Amino acid sequence: MLKGRLGLETARVPHADRHGLIWLERGELCVIDGCLHFMAGKDSLTPYILQVPHQAVSMILLGPGSSVTHDALRLLARHGTLMAAVGQDGVRTYTAPPLLPDRSDVARRQAELWGNPRRRISIARHMYALRLGEVLPHRDLDTLRGIEGARVKAIYRLMAEKYGIPWEGRHYDRGDPGAADMPNQGINHAATAVQGAAAIAVQALAAIPQLGFIHEDSGQAFVLDIADLFRETVTLPIAFTAAKKSINGDETTIDRLVRREASTVFRKQDVIASMIDKIKLVLRTEENDGTGSHSDA
């Protein structure tokens, strides 16, 4: 009788035993006979229905052209499966309903480290070490930011030379973002895409977005911390590849060029999975096996 209606016929599966993320687009996420399904291509010649193993994944990424029923949200909430609405090619994230993750260990660990000034600066130093390739001796956050700023300026210049792009420095007018030159516009769009990926990673682990170790004021401070770890390896290559195509005569808008390149890079480099691993490393949730340990000294 009403099989699956109350969601009580099977036990919940812990997130540690699930298989990560699943991406769906252009269809309806709904419930059929008590099970989650995705009805796709209804306006095409080849419509199909996909049964979604909602208890076997941690998060569903719902792309453009999609809708979700109330009953589907109920089922996701019952089994603790997260859902985020994402943009074209999965390179933006717009919202992620708080569907109650089944563990609080990551959030508690993050709050514990953030709430202790000595340990907080230790985590910040560790994050700078991951980005700069060396552990800086300084313990003042403003000093660390200044050193990182100088290094980033050099990285911008070197990357521009590598891609054969004219570079006149980092410039960004929030009131008129379109006034920036093509490389700077590429960096702006690429940074947005990478921040979206970082937001998905943070949400998937149920970490606390507001508690950043380097960034402070933003409501997405920890998301920005994680995105910055991938600036040199992901953000800038995406930005400069797209900018070079635009400068060489590709008439596609720089925003679309960046999204296409980001989609390719995210898939090839498993960027979101790498971000999840970095979060675990930074917060030392894997310190028992020695993969994420570092000294507070």
UniProtKB/TrEMBL annotation:
It is an enzyme of class 3 (hydrolase). One of its GO terms (molecular function) is endonuclease activity. The keyword Phosphoprotein does not apply. Its cofactor is Mg(2+); Mn(2+). Gene3D superfamilies: CRISPR-associated endonuclease Cas1, C-terminal domain, CRISPR-associated endonuclease Cas1, N-terminal domain. Keywords: Antiviral defense, DNA-binding, Endonuclease, Hydrolase, Magnesium, Manganese, Metal-binding, Nuclease. The keyword Disulfide bond does not apply. Its EC number is 3.1.-.-. It comes from the Bacteria. It holds the Pfam family Cas_Cas1. Mn(2+) binds at E148, H215, D228. Belongs to the CRISPR-associated endonuclease Cas1 family. Homodimer, forms a heterotetramer with a Cas2 homodimer. This is CRISPR-associated endonuclease Cas1. It comes from Candidatus Accumulibacter contiguus. The gene is cas1e.
